[in-house]
Amino acid sequence: MTKIKSIFACTNCGATSPKWVGKCPACGEWNTYVEELVTKPTAQEEKQRSWKGPQSGNQQARAVPLNDIQAGNTQRLTTPDKELNRVMGGGIVPGSIILIGGQPGIGKSTLLLQLALQVSATTLYVSGEESEEQIKMRADRLGGSRSNCLVLTETNTDKILTVAQQTGPQLIVIDSIQTLSSPHIESTPGSVSQVRECAGEMQRFAKETNIPIFLIGHITKEGSIAGPKLLEHIVDTVLQFEGDQHYSYRILRTLKNRFGSTDEMGIYEMQSGGLREVSNPSELLLSQKDEDLSGSAVAATMEGMRPMLIETQALVSRAVYGTPQRSATGFDLRRLSMLLAVLEKRGGLPFAVNDVFLNIAGGIRVDDPAIDLAIVCALISSLEDVSIPSNICFAGEVGLSGEIRAVTRIEQRIQEADRLGFKEIYISKYNTKGLDVDRYGIKVRTIGKVEELYRALFA
Ligand code: TYD
Ligand code: MG
Question: What is the domain extent for residue 366?
């Protein structure tokens, strides 16, 4: 007999408790506990749910020497989408589960339907969100409909996996994990235990059949994948699809990858006919302008393994109200406050009486510390109303005492700036070890302190 019991689960981290609690002892969030009904399957049912049939539970466990395991049959499935291949670490690993999260409307369904249409492997596209007609309309919009994409609109996991077994696709896409419901437990779709159960069933299926599965996951207001954080533990790869609603650029980042590096990222542009891969991001992120304007500076940043030149813009203006405003788009506000404090203290520049607005072009979020130097320049440039020639770029981290610190992969940054026709690049003087500055057409200028930078550009 199946036993039904009720537990309370945290919607933030998935921790459970037999009683309701106000503050989650695991993640510290308030008011996140909800009641869930769970049915505990009997041992008999547990056995039957294995996709190899009931007898698989009786087989004896056996350890295998690592050297005897053949790695040759784990051939990755490479897709026509180069950005996706890069982000996944060189293609899709058979039997892996990939979770892709992102805000509503960012293009998750578009990305994966496009993949399903382009890839030569037979794909089963399961949607619990859209009807068959709607998917067809979207596919028509994306063009290039291939006959080897099967569409299934279903939310019951047992039915989905039965269809998957019958049709034998080489790739499965589930849109989305929050709409699935497993008949094995009582909770409503989207609840913590339901999402965990469905993801677990998908994982078991993927591991047993060696078919890779993409799961689309919604994200909460706070930006984490909705509900259970534990979903991130079940899956092999977690990708995040992000971008600014007002721009057409979309960035695919790896948050976790069991089969590759998490440094990689892919860039797309949303167009009327779907997502286009952007292989040369710098040219898009540098705004086209004829004259040199104050408050703008170009940073030579790295996103993952890729060098990227990005324009930073600052506006410094006299504060109208008592407390000056600070606002940053695409950059950490606390880091901006830190840079302003450094300029105020070390450079004696009067930022404390001014409003400061900072913007990274293209709606891109940058975490690379090498962008500091360009931001500092943009800030001073706006404050002093002195423009920086548009053929100069910067790469350096700014420390608390105003020193310019070395950054990683400086050679790649210089090369990219050189390739894009920049005439000068400012880097840290501590970054020149093993660097042959005469190799490049671009002039490499080295500085040690913010004061030197001020003297070189604004004095
Ligand atoms: P969608 O894939 O439905 O987002 P998600 O699944 O992440 O919620 O993307 C919907 C948005 O993408 C919608 O605002 C319209 C836009 N879009 C295009 O600009 N071009 C296209 O070819 C498609 C299919 C969508
Ligand atoms: Mg969608």
Answer: 283-457
